Automatic annotation (TrEMBL):
InterPro entries: C2orf69_mit. This is Uncharacterized protein.
Length: 181
């Protein structure tokens, strides 16, 4: 018997981040596996989605490097090709780029929901304050854009594991804890 094939209703695109092989932490190792990430995405969004897990082709040491990463993500979201995006700690803060994408959204028939997902490792770590600052600036710029585009941009942010100190493990646990509602 052949399983029922669904026409994909949406896309979930996950850009895998930094290399973390050999940590000795079973949770991090499991949640670094691209097949496992794809399975989690399907379990969160349903079996009728295309689950894409993209690995960086370039690394600067252990850190993933995506050329024109954030502008590409915003362009895909405006075109309706992304259902959710989890930040990697690199946030766009160029008001001109956000303004142009917002203008494109205003001319579209549909809107998008932009949810910034993060953990204390990304947003509350006193040793990595630039991430928090960039996230806040992006959120501020998106709020300004949302006021101008006739309600087509719905914006919110979700902080996971807020009651725990920052850790590398929580950075990976967000994949399983992701709230897609």
């Amino acid at each position: 018997m052949t399983p029922h094939l669904y026409v994909p209703s949406d896309n979930s695109i996950f850009f895998n981040g930094d290399k973390v092989e050999g940590t000795g932490n079973a949770v991090i190792e499991r949640l670094s596996d691209i097949q496992k990430i794809a399975e989690i995405l399907v379990s969160k969004f349903g079996s009728s989605i295309n689950a894409w897990v993209v690995e960086a082709s370039t690394f600067n040491g252990p850190f993933a490097v995506y050329k024109d990463f954030i502008p590409t993500i915003i362009a895909m979201a405006v075109a309706g090709k992304i259902c959710h995006f989890m930040g990697t700690g690199a946030y766009l803060t160029n008001k001109d780029v956000i303004g142009r994408r917002s203008d494109h959204l205003t001319r579209r028939a549909f809107g998008i929901r932009c949810i910034l997902h993060g953990t204390p490792r990304q947003w509350c770590d006193r040793w990595r304050t630039w991430i928090h600052n960039e996230k806040n600036e992006l959120f501020r710029l998106l709020k300004l854009a949302a006021r101008k585009n006739m309600g087509k941009l719905i914006l919110c942010e979700r902080l996971y594991s807020a009651d725990r100190p920052p850790s590398l493990q929580m950075h990976f646990e967000i994949i399983e804890n992701l709230d897609v509602s």
